C-alpha cells in the first residue's frame, strides 16, 4: 500500500457544499490500497498504523482527483479543419451543416473507418487525456446514425472500457442529427431510434445514457421528449444537448424528464434556469464549443446563483470543440464563464461525476473511492489554472495504476 506525502495542497473536491467548496487540505498525505483510497488528510494526523508504509514524495505540489470529462464525442473518423477557416470567415455552423458539411461529413468519415482504426484513434486520445490528468471519460456515439453503426461505436467504447484503467461511461446519441438518407422521412428515423436502436443498445448493456441534440436542424422538443421517454423505458437515463444555438426549450425539457444533465446552455432562458434548479439537473458547460463557435458562453454565474451545479467538460469532437484538453477548458471556464478556479475544478470532478452517475466511485478524494488522482506542478488551484501551460500534470494514477509520470 503506497503513501503519498509532502502534498503541498490537496483538493479533495468532496461533493458537499457549494460550487466553490473544494475542501482543501494543506500539507496532506494520501494512502491507497490497490484500486481504492484508504486514507486522506493532513500529514500530521496520519494514523500510526499507516506511518510505516512505503512513501512517495509529491514535492509540495498540488494533488487533485482524477479529472472527469463528462461530455465527449470520442469516436469519430477524420477531422474538419477545412470548416475551421470557413467559420472564421463568417459561415455559420448551421450553414455548413445545410451544405452537407458539419456532423454529416463526420458521419461519412466515421462510417468509412474500420473498427481497428477507430479503436486506435480513441486509444491515442485517451492516452493523451491521461497525461493531462483525466481518468474518467463520458463517450457518446452519434457519428454512426444507423442501427449497425451506432452499435459499432458503442461496442468500441465497451472494448476500450474493458482495456481500462481509465473509466469510460457510454452514451447513446443516435438522435444527433437525422442522417442524410432519412432527410425526407425523418419520422422513420425517429421510429428507428425509438423502436430499434434504443432497445438494441440498452438490451446489450452498451449505454447508460440516452442523449438528444435539441436544436433547429437537429431535433425539436416534441421528438426529443419521445426519444428520451423510450430511452428511459429501456433504463437509459436522459441527457440533452440543449439551448446551444437558440433558446429552444431544451433546459425546460431536461427538467421535465428528470435528465441527469443538460449540456451547452449558451442560450438558456430564465425559466429554464429556474426549472433546472428546482429539479436538480446538472448544467454541463462546454467552453471550447462557445469559443470555437464564437458565441457568448452559458451564464454560469446566474446558474450557480440559482443553485444549479455547473460541470465543465471538453465536448471533444471534430467540429465545434476539437480539443480534449480539459485543464485548458477549466481555464476558459474561469476567463469566459467567470467561474473561480475552485468552482471550475469542482465542475470537472465531483459535479462532473454526478452528471454521469459515478459519484459513488470517482470525482473526489475520499476513503472508499477509486484511487484516481493527478499531481499538478503548481502550489495551488489558482496558480495551476491561471498559468496556462501545455501540461502541468506530472503524474496520473487511475485505480491505483500509474498512467503517466513526467
Ligand atoms: O456538442 N452540438 C452537437 N454536437 C456537437 C458537435 C458535433 C460536431 O460538430 O461534429 C457538440 O457541439
Ligand atoms: Fe456535444
What does this 3D model show about the protein?
α4 (115-131) crosses α5 (147-163), α6 runs parallel beside α7 and α8 packs parallel to α9. The chain has helices at 81-88, 93-98, 103-112, 115-131, 147-163, 186-203, 221-233, 250-256, 270-279, 287-292, 300-306, 326-335, 341-347, 350-355, 381-386, and strands at 3-11, 24-33, 36-42, 55-57, 62-65, 67-69, 134-140, 167-175, 209-213, 237-242, 261-264, 282-285, 310-312, 373-376, 393-398, 401-405. The strands form 2 sheets. Strands 1, 2, 3, 4, 5, 14, 15 and 16 form an 8-stranded mixed β-sheet that branches. The protein has an 8-stranded parallel β-sheet with strand order 6-7-8-9-10-11-12-13. It is α/β, with parallel strands linked by helices and 406 residues long. The two termini are 22 Å apart. α9 links the parallel β11 and β12 (282-285). The chain is globular. The longest helix has 18 residues, at 186-203. The structure holds N-(iminomethyl)-L-glutamic acid and fe (iii) ion. N-(iminomethyl)-L-glutamic acid is lined by residues 73, 102-103, 106, 213, 241, 244, 289, 315, 317-321.
What structural keywords apply?
eight-stranded mixed β-sheet, alpha/beta, single chain, 406 residues, binds fe (iii) ion, binds N-(iminomethyl)-L-glutamic acid, eight-stranded parallel β-sheet, 16 strands
